[in-house]
């Protein structure tokens, strides 16, 4: 099974777990390092902060997955008249992960390559698309506003354009 096949399966499982979100498009939002890894073994302090955040803000509209290259959120981009929308909880959690990595480095986590905020989705033809949203240098903080603006800009480019017909682009 290829990586793309595994990703498609993961997205289909996520979509099946949120059947009421039919007015949106499932996406993957990953914070990955451009080289090396960003997981518990090398980012102990960051993951402690991420775990504390998840404990105090349990996800109810997204899924959190740990990947060796960095944390991943599976979420829905809602389609609205003016474009697209992501929930505040998704944007807040992405912001918290970036802050946790920066704080973790200050507390002794291994400093590594820049962090890339990446969004993946399937287009209207069922083709996997990936867009690098932001690149963040180690230890650099970014504002919630910048993260929200960058994510929404990428989501507007990535989600399938709806011509009035309902398209199920994931279950191929």
Report on the architecture of this protein.
It is a single chain. By secondary structure, the chain is of the alpha+beta class. The chain has one domain (3-9, 25-158). The chain is built from four helices and six strands. Strands 1, 2, 3, 4, 5 and 6 form a six-stranded antiparallel β-sheet that branches. Helix 2 runs antiparallel to helix 3 (88-106) and helix 3 crosses helix 4. It is globular. The two termini are 15 Å apart.
Task: Write the topology of this structure.
Blueprint: H1 3-17, E1 24-33, H2 44-56, E2 62-65, E3 72-80, E4 83-85, H3 88-106, E5 115-122, E6 128-136, H4 144-158
Antiparallel strand pairs: 1-3, 1-5, 2-3, 3-4, 5-6
Helix pairs in contact: 2-3, 3-4
Find the structural class using helix and strand composition: alpha+beta
How many E-type strands? 6
Query: Alpha-carbon distance between the termini?
Result: 15 Å
* SSE sequence, one letter per element: HEHEEEHEEH
Count of distinct structural domains: 1
> For this entry, what is the oligomeric state of its chains?
single chain
How would you describe the shape?
globular
* Mean model confidence by pLDDT: 85
């Amino acid at each position: 099974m290829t990586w793309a096949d595994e990703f498609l399966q993961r997205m289909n499982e996520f979509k099946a777990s949120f059947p009421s979100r039919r007015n949106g498009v499932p996406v993957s939002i990953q914070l990955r390092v451009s080289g090396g890894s960003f997981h518990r073994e090398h980012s102990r302090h960051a993951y402690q902060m991420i775990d504390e955040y998840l404990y105090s803000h349990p996800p109810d509209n997204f899924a959190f997955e740990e990947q060796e290259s960095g944390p991943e959120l599976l979420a829905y981009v809602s389609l609205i008249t003016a474009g697209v929308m992501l929930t505040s909880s998704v944007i807040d959690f992405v912001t918290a992960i970036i802050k946790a990595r920066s704080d973790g480095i200050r507390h002794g986590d291994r400093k590594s390559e820049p962090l890339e905020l990446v969004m993946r989705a399937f287009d209207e033809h069922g083709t996997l698309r990936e867009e690098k949203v932001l690149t963040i240098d180690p230890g650099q903080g970014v504002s919630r506003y910048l993260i929200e603006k960058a994510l929404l800009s990428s989501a507007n480019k990535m989600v399938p354009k709806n011509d009035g017909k309902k398209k199920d682009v994931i279950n191929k």
